[in-house]
Amino acid sequence: MRAMTYRQYGGPEVLELQTLPMPKVGQNSVLVRICAAALNPADLALQAGHGEPIMDAWFPVIPGWDMAGVVEAVGDGVGEFSPGDKVLAYVRQEVLHYGSYAEFIAVPVDVLVRKPPFLSWAQAAALPLAGLTAHRAVATALDIGPGDTALVHGASGGVGVLAAQLARLRGATVFGTASPGKHAFLASLGITPVAYGPDLADELLRLMPDGFDVALDCAGKGALSTAAGAMKPDARVASIAAFGEDVPMVYARQDIRVLEELAGLCGKHALHVPIAAAFPLEEAAEAQRLLANGAHGSGKIVLEM
Ligand SMILES: NC(=O)c1ccc[n+]([C@@H]2O[C@H](COP(=O)([O-])OP(=O)(O)OC[C@H]3O[C@@H](n4cnc5c(N)ncnc54)[C@H](OP(=O)(O)O)[C@@H]3O)[C@@H](O)[C@H]2O)c1
Question: Considering the chain, what percentage of its residues have pLDDT values greater than 70?
Answer without folding.
Answer: 100
